[in-house]
Amino acid sequence: MSTQDFTPDEMMAIAASRALSNTDVCFVGIGAPSAACNIARLTHAPDITLIYESGTIGTAPDVLPLSIGDGELCDTALTTVPVPEMFRYWLQGGKITVGFLGAAQIDRFANINTTVVGDYNKPKVRLPGGGGAPEIASSSQQVYITMKQSTRGFVEKLDFFTSFGHGEGGDHRERMGIRTQGPTLLITDLAIWKPDPVTKEMTVVSLHPRTTKERVQQTVSWAVRFSDDLQETPAPTEEELSVLRELKARTAAAHAGNRVETA
Amino acid sequence: MADFISLKDAVKKHLKSGDMAAFEGFTHLIPHAAAHEVIRQGIDELTIVRMTPDLIYDQLVGMGLVKKMIFSYAGNPGVGLLRRVRDSIEHGWPRSIEIEEHSHAALANAYEAGAAGLPCAIFRGYLGTDLQLVNPNIKRVSCPFTGEELAAVPSIQPDVAFIHALKADRKGNVLIEGILGVQKEVVLAAKHSIVTVEEVVDVLDTHMNACILPHWTVSAICEVRGGAHPSYAQGYYGRDNKTYIDWDTIAADRDKFQAWMDENVLKQGPEVFAGRIKGLEVTS
């Protein structure tokens, strides 16, 4: 049973979770991707393999980790490997079916910037940088991206290419010597986007409930392409919402203070 | 051969102004106590290496001890940005630092190459990223067998490696469990290594494939209970997420930062860490 009592952020996390399957081996970025991946695990994909770059393979946290290396991830993992092994054997070795990333800035070909706003040497805002993302973007079999829409984030031209998506579109990935599919899905608080099969420009294929094309365009700096066969994203079910809200509540309680007062 | 000495003496003995130092620990086992000792001794002009700079590099940079930082993710994980690092890069306060920026895959490979005694690391990476335009230490090489274009970065072989571990036995063999990060690699890659541990025990009592650093790979062992706080030590105490969240406010303001450092680092010693993990201990 679906419900209309949900926020755009909740719709984003739930829509993203639906894209994952039981057989996926998913390299999980922190933040929005982490929520989506764990909702998938707690609803329709209990056997999904979640991997965090800290080396935890097959992890099943009870609360969302604040960092990519919280103890909760290791405690519940099938195994934990050293970080060089994680990047060499598991990611570079092609074992990851889905790399799930967030972003600060994205362009129409799903290239990502998480490095700087402004000039690299004289940045207006120095962002954290790439971390694992540059190689997650090129070595995972495909990449899903989740982020909220805003004109600051959805830009005409990136200030910095941290992680390569479809470059200038078309066969740019192949020309760069990249053999993986790259971004095949973008899930936002307003819509679901997929690359055009030929041009690779990200195209809106589904609008979330209560969203309009105008609203989508207002939050994007380029002229948005909409699919001829535009769908409406099914609203969250009560189960999806309650799983998400319980997860968020457990997480908030855990992060507010895990210190136990002792007499 | 591992010396059992105080953290103060170990830092004084092994780290010099102008050295390259790596403080490692991937979220888990971050050597906070060791970094604070370096700050107290005011050892400056450092080149610091770390995959995820975290609070300790925010503090080292904010205290003006750093000449250059080599890193791959300069954030406060799950919270936001490192505000002291940003202030240095964006406004040159308290000084400008040189940065050499990589991806995680590159630095993990570079530490492994350092441990393996190789001059560089080769991997499939940096495809299509602008990092190779701003970092001259990212090069391309062709595979001599297939012709595939691969990325190459210099290996990392620091003057001094700092790590925090769970325990050492009385000979100085060191045990790491949980998230292992690049600690084994950085110790084997470095000229000298200083290892703080939660406790020194008679027998490590572990399994046959455990991650152990033999005593003859380590320069100094210093027992510092709680020495990773607010990071965590698997089986000893949990990550103090609240302190990470609170740091964002402290580091946002130069005066507040300096007052905090004065009160909590400069006027303290390594023994203060034992008190900081009260209530965070793993009980089961």
From TrEMBL, chain A:
InterPro entries xrefs: CoA_trans_fam_I, NagB/RpiA_transferase-like
Record's keyword terms, sorted: Transferase
Gene Ontology terms for molecular function: transferase activity
Top-level taxon of origin: Bacteria
Pfam families: CoA_trans
Name of the protein this chain belongs to: 3-oxoadipate--succinyl-CoA transferase subunit B
Species this chain originates from: Pseudovibrio japonicus
UniProtKB/TrEMBL annotation, chain B:
Alphabetized SMART domains for the sequence: CoA_trans
Entry keyword Hydrolase: no
Keyword line: Transferase
Superkingdom assignment: Bacteria
The keyword Transferase appears for this protein: yes
Signal peptide region: none
Example of a GO MF term: transferase activity
InterPro entries per the UniProt record, alphabetical: CoA_trans_fam_I, NagB/RpiA_transferase-like
PANTHER family in the cross-refs: ACETATE COA-TRANSFERASE YDIF (PTHR43293), CHOLESTEROL RING-CLEAVING HYDROLASE IPDB SUBUNIT (PTHR43293:SF3)
Protein name in the entry: 3-oxoadipate--succinyl-CoA transferase subunit A
Source organism (scientific name): Pseudovibrio japonicus
